[in-house]
Amino acid sequence: MRALVISGGGSKGAFAGGVSQYLIEELQHKYDLYLGTSTGGLLISHLALNKTEKIKDIYTSVNQKSIFNNCPFTVKKTKHGQMEIAINHFNVLKNLVLGRKTFGESKNLRKLISKALSIEEFKELQNSAKDIIVTVSNFSLNQVEYKSINDFEYDDFCDWIWISCNYTPFMSLVNKEGCEYADGGFGSVVPIEEAIRRGANVIDVVVLETEVTHLNRMPSKNAFSLMTNMHSFMADSIEKQNIRIGKFVASNKDVIINFYYTPTVLTTNSLIFNQDKMKQWWKIGFEYAKRKNIGLNELID
């Protein structure tokens, strides 16, 4: 049984899309399991449908307005050409006055998910032998949960995809089934162990970080940049732990894991959705997967 696992990583998911497109279209890999966390959860349904061009068009055309109905930050370019975020005081204050639990709201993303994945496509996936699984964090029960497309109706599964991406406190905190849920990356950034638990013996894993740390973060400019740096630090730690545990479990069960890390640091803030850069990252992902597999074939020969 072969699985495709895509980690969380916000806008960097475009790189994962490029890698996956090469694996599916060029190498003709047939996957039984598709597992995604956060941005990975947005990709996997269309990848399972073999509709890579459709999700590519959608993914590389989003911007902040596609995600947020109330964006808590502004994006500006520094004098060095880098993009950074600053607090949108009006939007944050509005959310607080309305009694929201987060600084921003991401309901536009929920609408985009329903628009991108039709009921017919959902039923096609349910009727197939493939399993589509997204990772969510249950804050009320303090646990990670994995939601399979086979266990829910259309609207509920779209909710789970959305919840898996909700990077609180910048995006929505969702109350569902009596519990508070948010981004799956708070507990499981790279769900390798879950893929093995569900029976995978060959796993292709796309990790939206470099294999070796190349980044020395710049000092925080404001409270929001500090919070994103803190979140990134925690996510990196969880990611490394997920990979270590995944490798350990795989070694004990003779599972083959193929890792695809980003070759360079793509961005220092994955909450910034730049269409031009995301199109470039998709291409980089495709070419990286191509080079890696050509290199492997040459070594085997």
Commentary on this structure:
Helix content is about 45%, strand content about 20%. By secondary structure, the chain is α/β, with parallel strands linked by helices. The mean pLDDT is about 90. The chain has helices at about 15-25, 40-50, 50-60, 65, 90-95, 105-115, 120-125, 155-165, 190-195, 225-250, 275-300, and strands at about 1-5, 35, 75, 85, 130-140, 145-150, 175, 180-185, 200-205, 255-260. Strands 1, 2, 5, 6, 7, 8, 9 and 10 form an eight-stranded mixed β-sheet that branches. A two-stranded antiparallel ribbon has the order 3-4. A hairpin with a 2-residue loop joins strand 7 and strand 8 (about 180-185). The protein is built from eleven helices and ten strands. It is globular and about 50 Å long.
Key phrases:
about 300 residues; alpha/beta; 8-stranded mixed β-sheet; two-stranded antiparallel sheet; 11 helices
Biggest sheet features: 8 strands, mixed
Strand fraction: 15-25%
Distance between the termini: 25 Å
Count of helix runs: 11
Rough shape? Answer: globular
How big is the Rg?
18 Å
Can you count the beta strands?
10
H/E topology pattern: EHEHHHEEHHHEEHEEHEHEH
* Structure class: alpha/beta
Give helix % range.
Answer: 40-55%
Unreliable segments (pLDDT under 50, ≥5 consecutive)? none
Look at the structure and give the mean pLDDT: 91
